[in-house]
Amino acid sequence: MEEKKIKLNFWRVTFVGFAFFIIQSFWNSYDNVVPPLLKNKFGMTQEFRSGFFMSLDNIIALLFIPLFGALSDRVRTKIGRRTPFIIVGTLVSAISYVLLTMIHQLWLFVIVLLLTLLSMALFRSPAVALMPDVTVKPLRSKANAIINLMGTFAAMVVLILGRIYNTAQEGKTDFTAYVFAVSIVMIVSLIIFLLVVREVKWAKEMQELTDKYKLDAESEERKEHGGKLSKRQLISLIFLLTSVALWFTGYNAVRSKYSLYAPNVLKQDFNISLLIAYVAGALAFLPVGIVASKIGRKKTVLGGIVVLSLGFFFAIFANEHTPEWVMYILFTLVGVGWATINVNSYPMVVELAYGSDVGKYTGYYYTASMVAQIITPMLSGAIMDFFGSYRPLFPYATIFVGASFITMLFVKHGDVKTIDLTDYEDYDL
Asked: Does residue 178 contact residue 29 with C-beta atoms inside 8 Å?
């Protein structure tokens, strides 16, 4: 008998990914705009004051992303549960983002900044939850790889716009043209999304296929416990979210501090190493999604942790005499390791979702990651201040990422289901 199978519809996931493209377009430009505005326009030379404003996005995300994710689970409209949040969030944030660059009073700047950040938080969980809404569970790692790739393309577009509008110019205070261009990219992406994506229809098809071929083993186990997580599932979720917090703690310390570490410790430019990590990650997204579908998400994530830990560990021994090409190799490992973890960890969390609560579990994932991103710049900075050196950065990152390997060993749920495809019809989902 000819083997037939459920196939991932690349174009369907790509168009769903335009919602994530919008999010990444904003955030990859945000760090290029707000810090220089605070410093050059409003005279915030004190690191504490400017640091507080730059932490507002994570604080708001921690407070509101889980709320809006759970709220979107309960919304029912003709265009779907997630799409209304994406429309409102994108339009409000695009408009307020442009207004932000035109304001000269600090108090008004703060109000508009809060509005912008709140509108971005409004649709982050709903936008990310849309992928599992329309994708059967066995294919979600592959689909998440495409979503992450869309985010990388967004970062590249914003980088090009930054070069065109010279956002790196010293003392620059006028970012209106640049932000307007980014906002146009966001709105055009929204238009493409709305023209193609059919959330209600695609979600219904996904659910019918899931029910027909019993592709949701985790939900079957929850049914046996009245819709609640079983004890084993709850333990797995706790250890999985702990792992998420640990690897984000290690990775984001390097991401936020390496721009200081490289010139002070290595006497090297940091930009090329970071760019190599991004490129390596982008190239790895699709392959690691395929690998996970063959050997399982947990094994793939554990492999990614090992690769990421090795990159950080060997970087401990680098100094100003270390050739730059060595750091390029190490950051290639970092990029591949991080991509491997990132592509597969979110699908593991939402694998445990039941019925229509994918948005709530998306919120859990972002809560774990945001807590880490709020704490780690302060914690790693305090440790470096204690030792009076930037050198503890990579030992710090290695320890936290390595610890996530131990906690992942206790995760027994959330893996991809091995399925016999022989009797399946051909589906593009």
From this structure: yes
CA distances 56 to 29, 67, 182, Å, are 16, 17, 21
| Model pTM score | 0.85
Asked if 222 and 390 touch (Cβ cutoff 8 Å), the reply is no
Answer whether residue 420 shows pLDDT above 50. Answer: no
CA dihedral over 369, 271, 380, 158, signed as positive or negative: negative
CA atoms in the 13 A half-sphere facing the CB of 101: 23
DSSP secondary structure, 154-219, as one string: HHHHHHHHHHHTTTT-TT----HHHHHHHHHHHHHHHHHHHHH--HHHHHHHHHHHHHHHT--HHH
Contact 136, 206 (CB under 8 A): yes
Most distant CA pair in the chain, distance: 72
- Cβ–Cβ under 8 Å, residues 149 and 282: yes
- Whole-Å CA distances, 115 to 52, 179, 188, 320, 352: 17, 16, 21, 44, 33
Is 222 in contact with 346 (CB distance < 8 Å)? no
- Segments in 75-139 forming alpha helices (H): 83-100, 106-134
Quick one: pLDDT at residue 429? Answer: 56
pLDDT reading at 425 higher than 70: no
Distances (CA, A) of 14 to 19, 128, 344, 394: 10, 13, 17, 35
Instruction: Read off the tokens for 217.
Output: 């083993």
Q: What are 153's two structure tokens?
A: 């393309």
